[in-house]
Amino acid sequence: MEAKLIALGIETFKIALLLSLPGLLTGMFLGLAVSIFQATTQINEMTLSFIPKIIGVVIVIILTMPWMLNSMTDFSVNVFNMIPTFVQ
To answer: What gap in Å lies between CA 7 and CA 84, rounded to an integer?
Structure first.
């Protein structure tokens, strides 16, 4: 039973990382692109760095939402199906 709990914890972290990656990677790459643009043009505007990241992350979350919901639903169903094995 203890091994199953550890496996469930590992799977939980994997799902959390997998679901957060699209938004985090989008924000990171857009932030890098905007920083390079600001460095080359010497424009130091704070809103110029925030607006593209916010818009990009929102678009990526909207586009990946069906996949995220499907992954979370599958994981939740697996967890609920494993409850009887933890109770024994």
So the answer is: 16
C-alpha angle 10/71/29, rounded to 5°?
85
CB 23 within 8 A of CB 60: yes
| Per-residue pLDDT tens over the stretch 52-62 | 999 999 999 99
Helix or strand run (H / E) with residue 49: helix 46-87
- Residues in CB range of 24: below 8 A, 6 or more apart: none
Are 56 and 27 in contact by the 8 Å Cβ rule? The answer is: yes
Give the burial string for 13-26 (b: 16+ CB within 10 Å, else e): eebeeebeebbeeb
CA-to-CA distance for 10 and 4, rounded, in angstroms?
10
